[in-house]
Amino acid sequence: MKEIQNVDIIRVKGDILQREEDIVIVEYPFTLFIEDKEIITLLCSPSSLEYLALGFLYSEGFIDSLEDITKINIDKEKGICNIKLYNVNKLRDNLRGKRTITSGCGKGTLFYNVLDSFKSQKVENILPIEIEKIKLLVREFNRKSELFKDTGGVHSCALCNYDEILIFEEDIGRHNALDKVFGRALAENINTLDKIIFTSGRISSEILIKAAKRQVPIIVSRSAPTSLSIELGEELGISLIGFARGEKMNIYTNKKGGGFL
Amino acid sequence: MKEIQNVDIIRVKGDILQREEDIVIVEYPFTLFIEDKEIITLLCSPSSLEYLALGFLYSEGFIDSLEDITKINIDKEKGICNIKLYNVNKLRDNLRGKRTITSGCGKGTLFYNVLDSFKSQKVENILPIEIEKIKLLVREFNRKSELFKDTGGVHSCALCNYDEILIFEEDIGRHNALDKVFGRALAENINTLDKIIFTSGRISSEILIKAAKRQVPIIVSRSAPTSLSIELGEELGISLIGFARGEKMNIYTNKKGGGFL
After folding, report:
1. The predicted structure's pLDDT at residue A105
2. Do A226 and B26 touch (CB under 8 A)?
C-alpha cells in the first residue's frame, strides 16, 4: 500500500494558474477490533501497520507484552485489524476507565488525574552519552528523514543506541510514528531501557509519558518541547533535548549524575 | 494565564555549552465535566478557554447551539470547566457511542464507519472569491501569526470573510485552534456558511469534517492536505487550498460553478 498518492492540482504562482500533477501524503483509516469490539480508528500512514497496532495496544495499556496477544490479523484492503487477547477481563477493565472521547492533535490521550499513577513510573536508569554522539545521531536521523520532508507533513521517529539508529518509522501523526517504533521494539524484543528516542515532532506531555512507559531515559527532538513535557521530564527522570539540528541543540532537562556529558 | 513560560536551558552551539534562559510554550491540561461527568482533558494553550469548550462541545456533537447550554463555569486555576446542559439525555446518547479511547495527533476523532453520516452534510453553498483576495488574506493571516512562529510549535486558525479576518485564535494543537474559532463564532452568533477557514496546520480528514459540520465552503492552509481530506473535500463540496504562502498556493479541490475565480 502506497504512502503517497498523485493528485491533479492547480498550481498558483503569482498571476499564473497551471494544471499540474502533485504528490500528497496518504491518510489511511485503520480500525482496531479487540475481541470483536471496535476500539478506535487510527488515521495513519499505511506502513508498519502491525507495529502500529502493537505499539498502540501497549501505549493504551491493553497489553504488557507480546505474550498477552493470542492472534493479530490485519486486512490491509479493508483497513481492519482483529486482535485476540489471552486475558479478556483486562479489556473490560481498560474500557471501563475514564476515557470516553477520542480526540485529535493536542488533545489528551490520558486524563490528568491519572497522571499521578505515572509518577511511579520514574525512569531510574541513566544513560551517559557525549553530546558529540548525539550530534552524529541527529545527522543520521535527518538524513533518513529527508525523503519525507519533501512530500510534506510526515513525522519521523527512531530508536537509537549510542552508535546507530536501530528502528526508524514514519507516519502522518507523531504519536503513530512513536507507537510504530515501540511496537517494533516489542515485536523484535529490543530493550528500550538503554536507548534514545529521536522524533521530528513537538514533545508534548503525551509523547513524554509514552516514552516513560517504556522507560526510555533520553528523548531528542527536532522541534520544541512544551512546558508540561519539561516538568514531567524533571519529575520522571527523562533527559530532554529540543531543536536538535546539525551542531545546535537545547538541553531542557538533564539527569543528575548521568545524562549528557 | 500565560501562554509562554521561561525555562533554564543549556544551549549547545558546536563545542560551546552555555546556560541560558529560554521561552517554551505552555501546555495546559483543561478538563471538561458535563453534568459532573468527566468527559476529556484537552491539552491546550490557556487562552480563549470558553471558546475552546464551546467549540469542542459542538464538534463532538454534545450541543447544536448555544441554547443547549444551561451553564458553563471555568476555574482557570484548577483547569476545570463545568458544563450543564438542557437535554441530559443527549449526553447519554453521545457517550453510548462507539468512541472509547482518547487519542493524540493523527488519530481518529471519529470512526470511519460513522463517516457515511457526514456525507449528508454536503456543503451546498458556494462562495466565489478571487485568488487575489485569498493572497491578501494569506498575508494578513501570516502577519498575525508571526509572534507565534517565534516561540515555536503553535498553530493559528482564522475565520475570514472576503475582506478581513473576523476571528483569530492560536493553540498548541491545530484541532484546538479550530475549535476555538468555531466556539467564538457560536458565542458571537457569526454565520460560518459564507466564510473561509485559514489554518497554519496540516489539513487532515478530521479538520475537514469539523469545517463541514459548520458548512464552511473554503479551507486555506499554509501546510499540506492529506489524500483523505482531498477525497472528502470533493465529496462534501469544500474547496481546498494548500501551501498558501505569499504569491503561491495549490488548489486541490474547487467547486464547479463557484469557488475560486
Report:
1. 40
2. yes
Distance (Å, rounded) from C-alpha A163 to C-alpha A139? Answer: 12
Cβ atoms of A127 and A196 closer than 8 Å: yes
With the CA atoms of A56, A62, A64 and A66 taken in that order, what torsion angle do they form, in degrees rounded to the nearest 10?
Answer: -70
In CATH terms, is domain A28-114 a member of 3.90.1150.10? no
DSSP codes, B136-151: HHHHHHHHHHHHHHHH
Residues of chain A contacting B208 with CB distance shorter than 8 Å: none
Of A104, A124, A232, the closest CA to residue B24 belongs to: A232
Cβ A14–B247 below 8 Å, yes or no? yes
Of B11, B106, B176, the CB nearest to A176: B106
Q: Which among B94, B114, B126, B81 is positioned nearest to B205, based on CA atoms?
A: B114
Chain A residue nearest residue B6, CA to CA:
A227
- How open is the CA angle A97-B55-A29, to the nearest 5 degrees? 60
Phi, psi of B22 (to 5 degrees): -135, 170
In the 8-state DSSP scheme, what is residue A260? B
CB spacing of B43 vs A104 below 8 angstroms? no
Look at residues A255, A3, A2 and name the one whose alpha carbon lies nearest to residue A153: A3
Q: Is B149 left (phi over 0), alpha (psi -120 to 50) or beta?
A: alpha
Taking domain A131-253, whether its CATH number is 2.170.190.11 is answered by no
Classify strands B37-44 and B155-160 as parallel, antiparallel or unpaired.
unpaired
Contact A13 B254 (CB under 8 A): no
- Interface probe with B: pick from A2, A26, A80, A107, most Cβ of B within 10 Å: A107
Is B105 designated active site? yes
> In the structure grid, which three cell numbers stand for residue A164, read together?
546507530
Which residues of chain A are under the pLDDT cut of 50? Answer: 97-114
Domain ranges in chain A are: 28-114, 131-253
Task: Please answer whether residues A103 and B210 qualify as being in contact, where contact means their C-beta atoms are separated by less than 8 angstroms.
Answer: no
Beta strand ranges found along chain B (DSSP E): 4-13, 16-25, 28-34, 37-44, 69-75, 80-85, 155-160, 165-171, 196-199, 218-221, 239-245, 248-253
Query: In what helix (H) or strand (E) does residue A116 lie, and over which residues does it extend?
Result: helix A115-118
B49 DSSP assignment: H
Tens digit of each residue's pLDDT (9 = 90 or more) over B185-221: 999 999 999 999 999 988 999 899 999 999 999 999 9
Neighbouring residues of A115: CB distance < 8 A, sequence distance ≥ 6: A209
Name the residue type at position B257: G
Instruction: Say what the ipTM of the complex is.
Output: 0.86
Is B75 within 8 Å of chain A by CB? no
Strand (E) or helix (H) holding A210: helix A205-213
Q: What is the pLDDT of residues B62-91, one digit of tens each?
A: 898 999 999 999 999 999 999 999 877 667
| B2 φ/ψ sector (left φ>0, alpha ψ -120 to 50, else beta) | beta
